[in-house]
């Protein structure tokens, strides 16, 4: 059922509650906030945010916006799932949208934004396998939750596909598809952890590392900067980190992008137009909600044959002839 939540365009306000990474995390909070800023420029809305310093802030931050003239409240991150559900059920006339979470069954006044990041991560895994000199790759996550492990799933399956096609034996350290166990820093903000985990993977032979831990990954990039990209390359996540981590942009082979800015902006426009409906909005390779960023400074290092294979894989994933889920 479509719900009549729209307000006059000039009076429309979108409010966002961040996860603990903060609004300028060079990752998913910042990318989601860009969606509000884009809507502000395109649609003339007002936007404001509240930062969560700790998980204990989630309920209070959301509740403080309930009577704050927010036409839509956007919560950012899987960890806000319970707090968003509680607030939405207590305030059925308030529209909510949550990034990286979907409810089953759906909640009538919550639109989830989720992303098939395993599709893009599959491409990243295939790329990394083709670029590795040591034939050892590494990955680690912030917390063992689905929006994190979906990147790791796709990455490992992309490497497995490379091995199957090429008869190769590239291995991935840090994540086991079968046991669902791997390396996790258990936070999204400690850059020292990012450096330490990347160092451990490098010490075990990995020459390309995929950190799926928000700002923690910037610590991994610092290590790669010091070692040199001939020894360690990084694959970013969420945003194209070549543009957001400008001091170390040369260490990124690519990034697995999750276009939260695009889906947030779409949700705002849908709500403004009076077409808000609870359920799920899914970002895929096909609709541009996820993708593989350009190779930028490393473009010349990637063989043309590998680029062509990646494009063919992308087409096959979109048309369903290759599954990234098994």
The Rg value, from CA coordinates, equals: 20 Å
**Count of runs of 4 or more consecutive helical residues:** 10
**Biggest sheet record:** 6 strands, parallel
Structural class: alpha/beta
Stretches where pLDDT is under 50 for at least 5 consecutive residues are 1-9
Strand segment tally: 14
The geometry reads as globular
- How much beta, percentage-wise? 15-25%
Q: What is the helix/strand order? A: EHEHEHEEHEHEEEHEHEHEHEEH
Q: Spatial order of the strands in the main sheet?
A: 2-1-3-4-5-13
What does the average pLDDT come to? 94
Q: Tell me roughly what share of residues is in helical segments.
A: 25-40%
- In whole angstroms, the N-to-C terminal distance is 34 Å
Please supply descriptive tags for the structure shown above.
single chain, alpha/beta, six-stranded mixed sheet, 39% helix, globular, disordered N terminus
Model description:
This protein is of the alpha/beta class and 326 residues long. Helices cover 39% and strands 20% of the residues. The strands form three sheets. A six-stranded parallel beta sheet has the order 2-1-3-4-5-13, sandwiched between helices. Strands 7-6-10-11-12-14 form a six-stranded mixed beta sheet, sandwiched between helices. Helix 2 packs parallel to helix 3. The longest helix is centred in the middle third of the chain and has 21 residues. It is globular, with a radius of gyration of 20 Å. The N terminus is likely disordered.
């Amino acid at each position: 059922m479509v719900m009549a939540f729209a307000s006059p365009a000039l009076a429309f306000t979108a409010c966002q509650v961040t996860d603990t990474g903060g609004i300028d995390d060079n990752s998913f909070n910042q990318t989601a906030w860009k969606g509000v800023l884009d809507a502000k420029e395109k649609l003339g809305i007002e936007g404001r945010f509240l930062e969560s310093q700790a998980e204990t802030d989630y309920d209070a931050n959301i509740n403080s916006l309930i009577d704050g003239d927010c036409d839509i409240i956007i919560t950012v991150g899987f960890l806000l799932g319970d707090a968003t559900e509680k607030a939405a059920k207590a305030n059925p006339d308030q529209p909510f949208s949550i990034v990286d979470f979907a409810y089953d069954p759906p909640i009538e006044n919550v639109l989830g934004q989720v992303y098939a990041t395993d599709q893009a991560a599959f491409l990243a895994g295939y790329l990394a396998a083709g670029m590795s000199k040591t034939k050892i790759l590494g990955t680690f996550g912030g917390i063992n939750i689905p929006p994190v492990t979906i990147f790791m799933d796709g990455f490992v399956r992309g490497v497995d596909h490379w091995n199957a096609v090429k008869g190769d034996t590239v291995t991935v350290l840090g994540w086991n598809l079968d046991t669902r166990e791997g390396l996790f820093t258990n936070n999204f903000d400690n850059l020292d952890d990012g450096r330490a985990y990347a160092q451990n993977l490098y010490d075990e032979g990995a020459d390309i590392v995929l950190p799926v831990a928000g700002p923690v990954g910037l610590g991994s990039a610092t290590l790669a900067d010091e070692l040199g990209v001939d020894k360690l390359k990084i694959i970013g996540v969420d945003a194209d980190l070549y543009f957001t981590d400008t001091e170390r942009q040369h260490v990124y082979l690519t990034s697995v992008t999750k276009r939260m800015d695009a889906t947030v902006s779409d949700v705002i426009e849908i709500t403004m137009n009076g077409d808000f409906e609870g359920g799920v909005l899914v970002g895929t390779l096909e609709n541009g909600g996820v993708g593989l960023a350009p190779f930028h400074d490393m473009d010349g290092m990637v063989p043309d044959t590998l680029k062509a294979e990646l494009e063919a894989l992308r087409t096959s994933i979109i048309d369903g002839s290759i599954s990234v889920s098994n």
